[in-house]
């Protein structure tokens, strides 16, 4: 049975970054990366693709060109993870063992998590930047008016701000296309606030008011009827805050269909779909077995180490962490994981507990405008001291748009994935 010193599950942002940082510190390490994908996508730019301001092909690279020199790549899926035996079973029925394991497979999209979603997705105006941003672009370009609904599943999702970013860009695109006056833009969220970090709320509320967006809180999407073009929501709270109607131009056609259920007709529906940890993680002995984090990889939220298997670490979207699932979070998590495993290899304790939940959500608020929301555990603002010295990141800035469109992709491909940032 093949054996490796360090096995890394996943060749996405987290897996490649960790591997590159390991090999920069010690080229003699025996590292294997397990991932089936031939393509590597820079998904943070998919919002811009959907808004017709970024080329989809520029978000793709060949995976083989990104695997760090010195690491072995096995182009297979992991079928089972047995941390008791330090063993991975691949989908070609080959098993391998490891001394240390880094778990970074990302999330999976669950199209069956909402009734009717699988049948509706990708046609009839039902779109998602998480799945096919080019169909989002097509839908926006062809939109002639009516209800444009933007919503998200109640599960954890990659970048919680993403459902809003495309909405703000869509509002500007529809205005440019001359259909804004015939459009009701509706943001239906299962949450209780537009954004959880209070310092950034005033800027976002200005954008919402600017476009007369109807915001509905506590709206959990439960069903899509693509034949009738209706989307159904369960109302999860009954207080007066469950609907903010900001300058509704006309009735949005909301129907009460049950004691706590409403239906809204849609002409366009953009959805952040249900997401979960991959099935092999859910079945494994490193996942939470119950509670709100059920199925997600169990880690110490500061060291990224599994509490039951000290040679196992998880980071990125699959880790059960009370912060946003973003690439920016990975940039702060990766050095902690690398340092802790190198400590274990040297016979020391994994004592690095420096990760404080940092994440970043570049909130694009329009073409040429962006708010840079940086925060940590407890939704505490954690702005970069260099940037915040020169720019008030709580306000819409053109400079932050340039950061999003040009600087961050460059940093991703040329620095982060090479272990330099």
Number of strands: 23
Which CATH class of the largest domain? Alpha Beta
The general outline is globular
CATH fold-level label of the largest domain: FAD/NAD(P)-binding domain
CATH homologous superfamily caption of the largest domain: FAD/NAD(P)-binding domain
- Provide the β-strand percentage band: 25-35%
- Rg from Cα: 22 Å
Structural class: alpha/beta
Low-pLDDT residue spans: none
Give me the CATH architecture of the largest domain, please. 3-Layer(bba) Sandwich
Oligomer: single chain
Question: Major sheet, described briefly?
Answer: 7 strands, mixed
* Percent range of helical residues: 10-25%
Provide the domain count. 2
First and last CA, distance: 35 Å
- Mean pLDDT across all amino acids: 95
Contiguous helical run count:
10
Task: Give a brief rundown of this model.
With 421 residues, this protein is α/β, with parallel strands linked by helices.
């Amino acid at each position: 049975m093949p054996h490796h010193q360090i096995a890394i599950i996943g060749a996405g942002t987290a897996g490649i970054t960790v591997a590159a940082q390991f090999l920069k510190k010690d080229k003699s390490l025996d590292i294997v990366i397990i991932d089936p994908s031939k393509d590597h996508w820079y998904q943070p730019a998919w919002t811009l693709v959907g808004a017709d301001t970024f080329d989809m092909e520029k978000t793709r690279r060949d995976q083989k060109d990104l695997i760090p020199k010195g690491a072995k790549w096995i182009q297979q899926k992991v079928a089972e993870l047995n941390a008791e035996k330090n063993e991975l079973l691949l989908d070609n029925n080959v098993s391998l063992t490891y001394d240390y394991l880094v778990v970074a497979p990302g999330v999976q999209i669950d199209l069956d998590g909402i009734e009717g979603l699988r049948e509706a997705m990708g046609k009839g105006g039902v779109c998602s930047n998480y799945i096919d941003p080019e169909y989002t672009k097509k839908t926006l370009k062809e939109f002639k008016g009516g209800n444009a609904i933007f919503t998200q599943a109640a599960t954890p999702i990659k970048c919680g701000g993403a459902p809003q970013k495309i909405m703000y860009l869509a509002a500007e695109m529809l205005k440019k296309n001359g259909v804004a006056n015939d459009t009701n833009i509706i943001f239906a969220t299962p949450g209780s606030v537009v954004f959880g970090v209070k310092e950034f709320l005033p800027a976002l509320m200005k954008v919402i008011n600017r476009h007369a967006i109807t915001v509905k809180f506590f709206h959990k999407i439960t069903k899509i009827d693509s034949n009738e073009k209706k989307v159904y929501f369960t109302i999860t709270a009954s207080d007066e805050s469950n609907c903010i109607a900001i300058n509704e131009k006309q009735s949005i056609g909301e129907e009460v269909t049950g004691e706590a259920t409403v239906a809204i007709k849609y002409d366009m529906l953009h959805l952040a779909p249900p997401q979960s940890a991959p099935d092999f993680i859910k079945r494994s002995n490193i996942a939470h077995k119950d509670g709100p984090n059920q199925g997600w990889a169990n880690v110490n939220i500061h060291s990224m180490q599994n509490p039951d298997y000290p040679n196992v670490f998880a980071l990125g979207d699959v880790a059960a962490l009370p912060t946003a699932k973003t690439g920016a979070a990975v940039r702060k998590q990766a050095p902690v994981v690398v340092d802790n495993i190198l400590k274990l290899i040297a016979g020391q304790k994994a004592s690095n507990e420096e990760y404080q939940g940092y994440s970043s959500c570049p909130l694009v608020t329009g073409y040429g405008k962006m708010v840079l929301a940086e925060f940590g555990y407890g939704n505490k603002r954690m702005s970069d001291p260099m940037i915040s010295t020169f720019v008030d990141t709580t306000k819409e800035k053109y400079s932050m748009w340039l950061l999003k469109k040009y600087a961050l992709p460059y940093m991703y491909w040329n620095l982060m994935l090479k272990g330099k940032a």
